[in-house]
Every structure is written in C-alpha cells, then in structure tokens.
Predict the structure.
Amino acid sequence: MSFISLKYLINDTIKRAKINEQVEATLAFKYYNRAVKEEIGEKALSRTRAKYLKNGILSIAVLSSALSSEIKLHEAEIISRINKEFKRKVINNIKFL
C-alpha cells in the first residue's frame, strides 16, 4: 500500500474544484500585506488593501496619494517578495485603484 502526500492531495483537489485562481489571489493578498509591512511599515497596512488579481496584475486600493507614491517607489521590491513567496512569477505589475 502506497501513501500519497497531503500536499499532492490538496493541490489535486484545488485543481479539480477549479478554484486555483481564487486560492492564488488569496495567497497573493496575504503576501502583499507581508511585503508592504516589511518594505514600508505596519502603519501602511491600515491604508492599503489588495483587491484583485488578474492576468498577473495585482490591483490595490490606497487611501492616500502619499502612500501610493511610496508603494510605487517600492513596487519592484514588493513584487519580488510576492513572487519569491510563490517560488514563481505570479505578479507582473501593481495597479492602483
């Protein structure tokens, strides 16, 4: 009797249920929050929120133009941190709403 790894079973179930994109988006939002906290600081988290992920574009809402500028300044590092968490390129760009 052979055993199947839990990781394989979970990934297979996600694929069969066709919720890959939703799971990926949820993880991207979590990784975005972590990256913003590490790059800009915890205060920024209360004024920005990841809203959508589609075709490699992470759409975010930001409450101030000053914070938008700061995020834009750190955009490459934030994208790099998110993609590093995924261990592949998921995010290509950040769109400000």
